[in-house]
Design goal:
With about 240 residues, this protein is of the alpha/beta class. A seven-stranded parallel beta sheet has the order 3-2-1-4-5-6-7, sandwiched between helices. It contains seven helices and seven strands. Belongs to the short-chain dehydrogenases/reductases (SDR) family. This is Short-chain dehydrogenase.
């Protein structure tokens, strides 16, 4: 699907990959709907992007998801692309995972993307076209101690995306999965639990810039491929250095 002239909803758009994706989509000629809980940030960003609107939205609240989609329709008349980017980390070994924290991460990383897809799919079906990109994580490529709760939520999202893609075959709607590697965002500072452990584990790691991930997300929208990753080949991914594949 072409980015130029499209209407794009980006969740988690207040910083990091979401904000970078919104900027990249706007620069490519899209009209962008910025969604996040931090209303001040998305309003500031919307003011920098031509034709963009900002909507405060906690994607774990179905009523707010419905209001977000309605705001997009009222502003632009349609929704062409959804980037499900909102998410949160969790770092704790299996025996120490708080069940409340685990439920919270599942709600944001897995249930909320499903709610967003359910909200936009009827609109896309009426037009016979659409693209959905669900943002996963390169941590799903390894079995690193302490990442079990977070990885479980993202692996489930990847399978949900793949099955949704098959269910929508022939509808004109594609569902794809973006798998970034370590990225320079506010992820570690907003982790639900285990921040110190996560920071220690990633100390000295080479981080991608969010703009690189944003470019890959738009590439995935345009290609309609099932999946794209920025994970280095040494970690089992397809990235052999340089540009994403």
């Amino acid at each position: 699907m072409k980015i130029e002239g499209s209407v794009v909803i980006v969740t988690g758009a207040s910083s990091g990959i979401g904000a970078a994706t919104a900027r990249a989509a706007s620069a490519a000629g899209a009209r962008v709907v910025l969604a996040a809980r931090r209303e001040d940030r998305v309003r500031e960003l919307a003011g920098q992007l031509e034709g963009a609107i900002a909507v405060r939205c906690d994607v774990t609240d179905v009523l707010q998801v419905t209001a977000l989609v309605q705001a997009a329709i009222e502003a632009f008349g349609r929704i062409d692309i959804l980037v499900n980017n909102a998410g949160q980390g969790l770092q704790a070994e299996m025996e120490a995972i708080s069940l409340d924290d685990f439920r919270g991460v599942l709600e944001l990383n897995l249930v909320a993307p499903l709610a967003m897809m359910q909200a936009v799919l009827p609109i896309m079906r009426r037009r016979g076209a659409g693209a959905i990109v669900n943002v996963s994580s390169g941590t799903t490529f390894a079995d690193v101690p302490g990442t079990g709760g977070y990885v479980a939520s993202k692996i489930a999202l990847e399978r949900l995306s793949a099955i949704a893609r098959n269910e929508l075959e022939g509808s004109g709607i594609t569902v794809s999965t973006m798998i970034p590697f370590a990225t320079r965002t506010e992820f570690l500072s907003s982790i639900r639990a285990g921040r110190a452990d996560a920071e220690a584990m990633t100390a000295g790691a080479a981080f991608d810039e969010p703009e690189r991930v944003a470019e890959a997300i738009l590439e995935l929208v345009e290609s309609g491929e099932p999946q794209l990753d920025l994970v280095p080949a040494a970690y089992g991914g397809t990235n052999r250095g340089g540009e994403p594949r």
